[in-house]
Amino acid sequence: MNAAIQQWSDNLFHALNTSNQRVLINCCGTKEWCESFALQLVSGKKYVVLSDQSDNPVAIPFKKSIQLLGQECDAVIMDAFSGFNADAFTRLAGLVKAPGIFILIHPDNSQWLKQKDIHNIWQDNKSGHSYFLKYIQQQLEQAFIITCQQHLALPSITRFPNSKKTELNSQTLLSEQQQQLWSKLQDLMTDTQLQAIAIVASRGRGKSTLLGHWLQQEEWKTKKLIITSDSKKAVEHLLVHVNQNENLRFVAIDALLKNKQLADCVVVDEAATLPVALLNQLKVTYKKIIFSTTIDGYEGTGSGFYLKLLKRYKSNNLIEFNLTKPMRWGQSDLLETWLNNTMLLNGDNQQKLDTAKPVSYRAIPQETLVSDKLLLTQILGCLKKAHYRTQASDVMMLMNDPDSSIIVAQQDKNIVGVVVAGLEGGLDTALCEEIYYGRRRPQGHLLAQNLTAHAGSKHFAHLKGLRIRRIAVDELVQRKGIGSFLIKQVVELAKQTQLDYVGSMFAIDSERLTFWQSNKLELMYISNGVGTSTGLPSVTMLQGLSTRAKQIAVELKSEIHKDFSSRLLMQYKALEPQSVIALIQLLNAYESKPLDQCDAYINGHLGFEHVLPKLREALLFLFQRVDTKLSKQQQNLLVQVILQYQSWDERLLTQYQLSGKKELNKTIKKILIAI
Prior knowledge:
Layout: H1 3-19, E1 22-28, H2 31-41, E2 47-50, E3 73-79, H3 86-93, E4 96-106, H4 109-114, H5 131-139, E5 146-149, H6 176-190, E6 196-201, H7 207-215, E7 225-228, H8 236-239, E8 248-250, H9 253-259, E9 265-269, H10 276-285, E10 289-294, H11 304-308, E11 318-323, H12 334-343, E12 360-363, H13 368-371, H14 373-386, H15 392-400, E13 404-411, E14 414-425, H16 429-436, H17 446-454, E15 464-473, H18 482-496, E16 501-507, H19 510-518, E17 522-526, E18 538-544, H20 547-567, H21 577-587, H22 599-602, H23 608-622, H24 632-643, H25 650-655, H26 661-674
Parallel strand pairs: 1-4, 1-5, 2-3, 3-4, 6-10, 6-11, 7-8, 7-9, 9-10, 15-16
Antiparallel strand pairs: 12-13, 13-14, 14-15, 16-18, 17-18
């Protein structure tokens, strides 16, 4: 061991301990030197090595890094010689407790830009631009980043600004915030009006530790408590605190909803990473729910959790609680500050807008994002508010993907809208047929492959088009035509470059369907399964620009109409009723079928099942009209019991506050008479 390096490491950790800080060590040189130097720095410490190409037996591959969540260490060594993995970097920085270091090892800057980056490969095996790496190199020049270079003397250790520790109660070992949250959790279980509490925190705030201790209370050992998430592995950091409570168990969220297992309280860990559609079902089924989530950071979430779920609760039914004081490090932590600023983890687009001012539109060259940090922050902040998951790697995608185009809507210097579109298609005939028969699934080309493989248009992927990957408009200026004008800009770009179509894929939602239809995109395909991040089927919509694309659009729309009605009884049986109605209006292909043929049921004693086929035909035509006089609740009931033929069970009766099947039958007849 080099004595000089040992002394330097001792001095570094002494300074970090004195200030309660964590810092980033930027280590560059040959791989052999960097690895040797980094390992000497962490000698005697608890550390993690992250690398896909290391001889170190304790090195963990990038794809397994998620398994480390919930652990703590003094140092992390991340190998960036084969490329920079933004998501892993963001994820593992939270493992380091204060005092601690995160060591990034890589070639010298000029060589780093030239090396192949395995994390920067896009569709058609294209290498991306190196703009993101240039951006990272710029950020590594900031103050308090310690750079250690081969063949140069080690830098002197400066004094670090003090990072205040969060004070803990000597008896409870909880912070003041945690004690307040403990009290709120008690309120949840005793207040009959309260149904849920949403615990929101950045990484390292101690929410899992607190929840674990709270669930261990003696009074809960007689209650049935369930912890749920998408997988048991995702909640292991919470389960370690509650292994002594036999009445508390883990149930995956899909199994929980399918079997409707009894529970006095359900704890939903990392709720923002789960489909909102599934969380809404929990709201209907369980009387007491604890949502715990990291609203920003490594999980890849933004404020979509707030926008899509929390607004569904009445103010007296839900408590929101934000844990802001860090427990694993100090309150002015250098590593966290750098990470948040660089990866824009807390970059929600908070702007003061004059909604009366005119809006201009412009395309953004990707290289501009390297030098214009404010522009990058505003673009990502706008996207985070609108989309379910926004990860650190999305910053890389915006800068590097060679097939991406970015167009913004702007008021003065404020970004109020963003659309990101990607080039797809242009695949040769042989590859199209391989995709059609399910033998190949090349990277990318999601829309093109979807319509070829799943919708059955064998050579659609040969056509070239733009898929709108993301579109977002600031909520302060929504419903002013900005989103529609952004789509027009994409269509104009496609026409200028002689492309065949503009399309989009998204989770089924009645408002979205109406929005895309109003912008001249037509329904091409509805998925049979549900999306992992939404819990909903997805739709593919398209505006054909070339003659061939328009012909295919007509064919695909006709195919959907043929079996849509029967699929409502199978694949789409649980689809939200207003989305069903929106899809019927998009198809607009059902002939008039009067309700007269159902008169013996409506005004007589003929059984419901005897007239069900005729009722379904009549309603498919009825719901094509946008101006139906039925209330939304009446529409929803008819969709569920007639078009989807859902079971007349306790769940349905409770949903519509009906005493039994007899009252349900009377209600159906009353609505049909009103039609």
